[in-house]
Amino acid sequence: MSGLLKKLLVASAVLLLIPLIAGLFTKEVNWSGFDFLVAGILFTLVSLSIDAIVKRFRNVVYRRIMLATLALVFILLWAEMAVGLFGSPIAGN
Q: Which of 45, 31, 40, 54 is nearest to 73 (CA)?
């Protein structure tokens, strides 16, 4: 496991702590165990993808394009799961 991947996975775990802690103090954040599982899987897949892109693409331009594409896909998928941006079956609520 590369150093970058370790850092990304630690960052993912820290990001998952935010809604966990927020849920202790407010009723606005109401995540179930399944929500944490899905977010953890999504963060892990994105972390693995970032690591693969950084290792695979040596050309900085290609690397940035691939990372930007990955970020866009992640944001759109997260928005769809959170609020149903496109109204697909994976939409929340």
A: 45
Indicate the angle between helix axes 3-25 and 33-56, nearest 10 degrees: 160
Burial of 21 (0-12, 13-18, 19+ CB in 10 A): exposed
pLDDT tens digit string along 40-73?
Answer: 999 999 999 999 999 999 999 999 999 999 999 9
pTM score, two decimals? 0.88
Start-end of H helices in 26-59: 33-56
Residues 43 and 15: beta-carbon distance below 8 Å: yes
CA distance 67 to 18: 24
| C-alpha distances in Å from residue 17, one per residue of 26, 40, 49, 65, 80 | 14, 11, 22, 30, 21
Amino acid 93: pLDDT? 62
How far apart (Å, rounded) are the C-alpha atoms in residues 74 and 45?
10
